[in-house]
Structures are given as C-alpha cells and as structure tokens.
Specification:
Length: 144
C-alpha cells in the first residue's frame, strides 16, 4: 500500500493558517502526560482551543486503536467536517504525521503535519523546546 503524502508546515505557518481560517483546527496527538507536564498550545487569542486526542497512550506507547473514531467524533462536536484544514502536532512531528495519514485515509482532505511539533528536536544540551518547535518559536502556550 502506498503511503499517503501529507504536507508539512512550520509552526509559524500553522499559527497563520489557524488565524486566517476560522474553520481550521489544531489537533494535539501527544499523551495526557505531555499535555499536563509539558504544556499545551494556547489558541485563546484566536478564539480556538486545540483538539486533544492521544495517538498512543502512556506509559508503554500502546496505540490508540480508536484514534480515528475518537477524533472524528471530537471534530463533529466542534462542527468541523472533512473539508476543514486539520493541523496535527505532537512533540517533534513523528506521531502527528502518522495521525494525519490516518485521518487522510479516513477521508479528511486537508490534513497537515506541524513538522517541528510542540518541542522540536533535541538540542546540543540534550533538551527539547529550545531549537525549534512551537515553544522555541515563542508561540503562545500554557502549562496544562
């Protein structure tokens, strides 16, 4: 089976798209622990909130086999349809890419991956959140 292509966008581009398109949605697929201890994108200035659905659980990285169903339901609840732009974010862009592919396979036509994620790659000091990503670029966020 051929892999579904998903366009990557920078965190700045994701913010601009969320601001410009009232129907666009940011979907954070990290774990409950990450939301609570690392923080969440703060979209209050845009009159939005991120949709939170885990791609995999913690601990143990067990897959969320109900991901597509749960996210589809959450999107319906906020009035988003299969034509809305969906911007997927995780820690560094890997899980969010998989999640975007899963939703594209389910018929959502405008799935994008926020390439550097919330914290970006590990920096020279072996810490995340300083080289690239939502936090490092100074976009609004709040502690969970």
């Amino acid at each position: 089976m051929e892999e579904i292509h998903i366009d990557g966008v920078s965190v700045e581009e994701a913010w601009a798209r969320l601001k410009a398109d009232s129907a666009s949605v940011l979907i954070d697929v990290r774990t409950i622990a990450e939301w609570a201890y690392v923080g969440l994108p703060d979209l209050d200035a845009l009159g939005k909130r991120p949709v939170l659905v885990e791609w995999q659980g913690f601990p143990g990285d067990r897959p969320n086999t109900a991901f597509v169903e749960r996210l589809s339901e959450a999107l319906r609840d906020i009035g988003a349809n299969k034509d809305c732009e969906l911007l997927f974010i995780c820690r560094s862009g890997s899980r969010s890419l998989k999640a975007a592919r899963a939703m594209a396979a389910a018929g959502y036509r405008r799935c994008r991956n926020v390439s550097d994620g919330f914290e970006g790659p590990v920096g020279p000091d072996r810490h995340r959140g300083q080289v690239a990503g939502w936090k490092a670029r100074g976009l609004p966020w709040a502690q969970g």
